[in-house]
């Protein structure tokens, strides 16, 4: 005899599988075919090949295998081995505040506290995405209230290194200290877009059979603060993209999500970050992080 609870669970799984297929079909319809082995190689990024799987850190071994390397779990690892990798026209990394540089080069030694504020008109949508997508797939489970992060966010950095030991990127895995659930699972590296005058911080968030990618343009202020910006623009410029990857075929679309990170040392010599996320011209979410070095 089949229990009612099993039937209900199986029905829910089938429902979300249908929703996910519909979402991928949408992006395939309104996106464009891209050649990851050719002129769109800048969009090649980690994906989770298990269509019904949970993201978490499950994509990481495959990414290390793809580059013929391994995962390095050095506790003091940074998102970037040297922030000088971002040097380019209009961006001099030597002008950055020492703490900003240390955070990116030794991220594993820093811990964070977070506060969140949603614009009222977007709060319900944010809750829906977190409740029915983020927590289900273990990715992009954005906090809805500051109480959700009151106990803090745990993070760890695991670098992917090639067979030669060289840096190929870094996974920054952040979980809620209260629940242990994944909030973000991102892959960080430096990429230079075709025609760009400087490298960008390239962040990829793996998803089942796809990913969300953000290319952030670096800027340095007189105070030594760092700004990372994903502005509006055309396909191939800094900004946010979503991809669907099925076998050797890939579709991609630029999406109207714009982010800005302002990483700065305040008057009390504490490192802080203001993170703003906008949909089109409307600010949807503001996050503030206090960064503390162990």
Description:
It is a single chain. The chain has 294 residues and is of the alpha+beta class. The chain folds into two domains: 30 residues; 261 residues, no CATH class. The protein contains four helices and 14 strands. Strands 1, 2, 3, 4, 5, 6, 7, 8, 9, 10, 11, 12, 13 and 14 form a 14-stranded antiparallel beta sheet that branches. The chain is globular and about 50 Å long. The N and C termini lie far apart (55 Å).
Q: Low-confidence runs (pLDDT<50, min 5 residues)?
A: 4-9
Task: Calculate the mean pLDDT score and round it.
Answer: 93
- Secondary structure category: alpha+beta
Number of helices: 4
Q: Please report the total strand number as a whole number.
A: 14
Count of the separate structural domains: 2
Q: Percentage of helical residues?
A: 10-25%
Radius of gyration: 19 Å
What is the approximate shape?
globular
SSE series: HEHEHEHEEEEEEEEEEE
Note the main attributes of this structure:
alpha+beta, 2 domains, globular
Brief rundown of the structure:
This protein has 294 residues and is of the alpha+beta class. The protein contains 4 helices and 14 strands.
